[in-house]
Known about the structure:
By secondary structure, this protein is of the alpha/beta class. The chain has 2 domains: 9-139 and 310-327, 3-Layer(aba) Sandwich (Rossmann fold); 154-308, Rossmann fold (3-Layer(aba) Sandwich). 39% of the residues lie in helices and 19% in strands. It has 13 helices and 15 strands. It has helices at 46-53, 70-77, 96-113, 122-125, 167-177, 193-202, 216-225, 241-248, 259-265, 269-272, 279-288, 292-305, 311-327; strands spanning 9-11, 17-18, 21-25, 28-34, 37-43, 60-62, 82-86, 116-119, 134-135, 154-158, 184-187, 208-212, 226-231, 253-256, 273-274. A 6-stranded parallel beta sheet has the order 12-11-10-13-14-15, with helices on both faces. It has a 4-stranded parallel beta sheet with strand order 6-7-8-9. Helix 1 (46-53) packs across helix 2, helix 5 crosses helix 11 (279-288) and helix 8 crosses helix 12 (292-305). The longest helix is centred in the N-terminal third of the chain and has 18 residues, at 96-113. It is globular.
Amino acid sequence: MNRGHQVEVIAPSRVEHLGAIPVVGCGKAHGLSWGGTQIDVTWAPWRVVADVARRGYDVMHFHTIWNPATSFQLAAACAGPMVATFHDVPGPDTPAIAKWAMAPASELIRRLWLNETIAVSPVVSAYLAPGHHEVIPNGVSVPETLPPEGEREAILCLGRLEPRKGVSTVLEAAARLGKRCPPVWIAGDGPLRGELERLARALRLDRVSFLGEVSDEDKWKLLRRAAVAVAPATGGESFGIVLLEAMAAGTPPIASDIPGYRHVLAERAGDLLVPVGDSLALANRLTLLADVGRRRALQQWGLDHWRAFDWSVIAPRVEAVYRRAVFGN
């Protein structure tokens, strides 16, 4: 919208606006546990799909085209140019048949409906047809004015409390640090919250706070007060927006060594990645970041690095894809 486009979000939602962007309600969503996470299975009455198709979009851009079934309904009903961004990668709990199907299914979707295809990272690109997609990373939006910087003492973990996010590794690392461990803030909610709270009590972690789901405003406040942000996912992450948001807030991120995160952290991956599920390695890395000089160097690197993913840089690349979809090469 900031670049002069009229934008609408199509979603199974009763919300009429997402900030300043109108939301067009289409279908209902039903949560389904799948591959260590939760997806929304949606369906819309065909008359509603037809109403959306008649709105006459210049380009329809799908971000969840894998999720059945409303995306497929819209793709079948709409006649204009279509673009899809593929974000998904298999996680450790993804069924083998789903991993096998990703490449042929994505190619079938492309051939049936898509004018242009985007992958958010090389790990996604690996299962898309060579020569028929472009790698464009996710863009990051940062408030024009960030909250004031805080004391920079706590360890912050942001995300949904589900198996693939690996939050138990943070608690186990905190237990290894013992009295040296600063406060730990767990911001997020999900099916594992009760289990993680019991684990924290069993490990006698009296400086761990479960904050529940937080607003976008509170997320930035937490990021501006934390010493480090930890992303301990076990897999299933194609990118790492949370890492870039931490960098933009001046908070060095520590993450598990999975391809999506390694791509984002680039040349500093060796300083900021730890093996998946390795609480000892994570504890050791957190101890190293107690060195104020080391932390400030990583902080400055992050403040410079994230800007390559700012929407002001990414948006023109996405616009170029739209132009190809509408006008051809």
